[in-house]
Amino acid sequence: MNLVDIGANLAHDSFDADRDAVIERAHQAGVQAMVVTGSDADSNAAAVELAEHNPALSATAGLHPHQAESWSVRLSAQITDFAARRCIVAVGETGLDYFRDLSPRRAQAKAFEAQLAIASTYQLPVFLHQREAHADFTAILKNAIHELPAAVVHCFTGDREALETYLALGCHIGVTGWICDERRGRPVFDLLADIPSDRLMLETDCPYLLPRNLKPKPDSRRNEPAYLPVVAQTAANARHQSVEELAEQATANATAFFALAEGG
Ligand SMILES: [Zn+2]
Questions:
Q1: What total number of domains does the chain contain?
Q2: Which of 68, 126, 196, 255 is most enclosed, with most CB atoms within 10 A?
Q3: Residue 211, in any domain of the structure
Q4: What was the pLDDT predicted at 264?
Q5: Neighbours of ion ligand 1 (CB under 5 A)
Q6: What is the 160 CA–ligand 1 centroid distance (Å)?
Q7: Ligand 1 center–CA 95 separation, angstroms
Q8: What is the pLDDT of residue 1?
Q9: CATH number at residue 81
Q10: How far is the CA of 11 from the centre of ligand 1 (A)?
Q11: Residue 156 CA to ligand 1 centre (angstroms)
């Protein structure tokens, strides 16, 4: 198998002690390429640093809605500067999160709109986060989507209506280990067969979202890219197709979406 993890928070400090070993285990497990998620000034810089020194890694640069209140001229300049670099393959993660509501909604909208504008200027795809904010998120995205080369709704956890809206807008759908949770992940598992095969991509969102069906579970409960095959197998089960077929399609989608070097 040759997989791409399109959402790996490898800049997270939980990987500080053994990051090289984590990347090596990913390769051993068939995860050849990883897109390191940037979510604030520090993780953007760390993601760029990682991606510039490892050909298997590329990165995104953005501001997560949880931190939207820290949007500033300086951060905008950082993301704009990074957007021009080769290793940056998307703007984000950005979007709206009304589930946690950690930043005021007005600040979330402002940071989201500004990042969509940067992506448009640099003709980069966007890596999007949406939780419990479907209507406002869609309204903002609709205004910008036609100027963007591509968009992925990462860690999709929505319902059928949300899925259909995103597909109609031309979005790709990022699927995580959320679907491996037989309780809260069941509704998304049941929708997986309705995602067109050319729109589906796979991600761990590590260190978060350790697949619940992973056996044995690591003592640390930390998720890592080496567990992406578990997500791929669960998605293949939901779609009644072989994991090999699904992996090939998802990898082709990710390679094209992020313009990754073939076989990288
Ligand atoms: Zn997210």
A1: 1
A2: 126
A3: yes
A4: 43
A5: 129
A6: 19
A7: 9
A8: 87
A9: 3.20.20.140
A10: 14
A11: 9
Contacts of 134-142 with C-beta under 8 Å, sequence gap 24+, read: 134/158, 134/161, 134/162, 134/165, 136/96, 136/98, 136/105, 136/109, 137/95, 137/96, 137/112, 138/165, 138/166, 138/169, 140/96, 140/109, 140/112, 140/113, 140/116, 141/116, 141/169, 141/171, 142/169
Instruction: Tell me, yes or no, whether 166 lies in a domain.
Output: yes
**Is the whole-model pTM more than 0.70?**
yes
What single-letter amino acid sits at 199? R
Residue with tokens 């040759």: 2
Question: Ligand 1 centre and the CA of 129: distance in Å?
Answer: 5
Task: For 142-155, write each residue's pLDDT tens digit.
Answer: 999 999 999 999 99
User: Which residue type is seen at 137?
Assistant: F
Give the CA angle between residues 133, 137, 141 to the nearest 5°: 170
All residue ranges of the chain with pLDDT < 50 are 264
Cα gap 142→44, rounded to integer Å = 26
